[in-house]
Design goal:
It contains 2 helices and 2 strands, in the order βααβ. The chain is of the alpha+beta class and 72 residues long. InterPro entries: BglII-like (IPR015278), Restrct_endonuc-II-like (IPR011335).
């Protein structure tokens, strides 16, 4: 159709899993199950892009790394 010329996806890198494992909610439960393998992250995205599931549209994929996270 030519409706989309390029796609940009910003998601988390694999190394952010370590950060999510350390974060707990107000009940003391880990947040990692909320951001597990069923949600989009760079590992899942790379697989899909390599298998050409992007419909031929060029994709710029940006993975947020641990160095981008700051605890204040």
């Amino acid at each position: 159709c030519g409706l989309v010329e390029v796609g940009i996806i910003v998601t988390r890198s694999k190394e952010l899993n370590d950060v999510f494992k350390q974060i707990v909610d107000h009940n003391g439960k880990s947040l990692m199950p909320k951001y597990g393998a069923s949600t989009t992250w760079m590992g899942k995205l790379e697989y899909r892009l390599r298998s050409r599931r992007n419909g031929g549209c060029p994709i710029l994929a940006i993975g947020i790394k641990k160095s981008c996270i700051r605890d204040e």
